[in-house]
Amino acid sequence: MPKNKPSGSWTDILSELVEVFLKSIRQGQRGRSWHQHVVPYGDGWAVRREGNKRITSKHRRQDTAINKAKRLASKYKADVIIHRRDGTIRDRINYD
Question: Phi first, then psi: what are they for 78, rounded to 5°?
């Protein structure tokens, strides 16, 4: 019975594995953004990263939440999406 011959040297295999790993990381990052939403939260307001269920921070006043969201969005070159109490979008600030 003939033995199965490896497709290449161990360095070739390692190189392929690293390439596949890096490609999967890049694809995963494309789906997530750093856009910050200012949303109603109980009696106050919260900052939540787009796509997250958990909030980033809680605030009593909307202007405080907006300032926090602006700091995060400017750091990551993202947008701030400000919601009204009923959940509709009031404003969008771009930091690209």
Answer: -125, -170
Q: Tens digits of per-residue pLDDT, 32-46?
A: 789 999 999 999 999
CA atoms of 58 and 60, how far apart (whole Å): 7
Burial classification of residue 27, based on how many CB atoms lie within 10 Å of its CB (0-12 exposed, 13-18 middle, 19 or more buried): exposed
What are the residue boundaries of the structural domains of the chain, listed by start? Answer: 36-94
94-to-58, 70, 86 alpha-carbon distances in Å: 22, 9, 22
Higher pLDDT, 5 or 94: 94
The phi, psi pair for 16, rounded to 5°, reads: -65, -45
* Distance, CA of 35 to CA of 26 (rounded, Å): 18
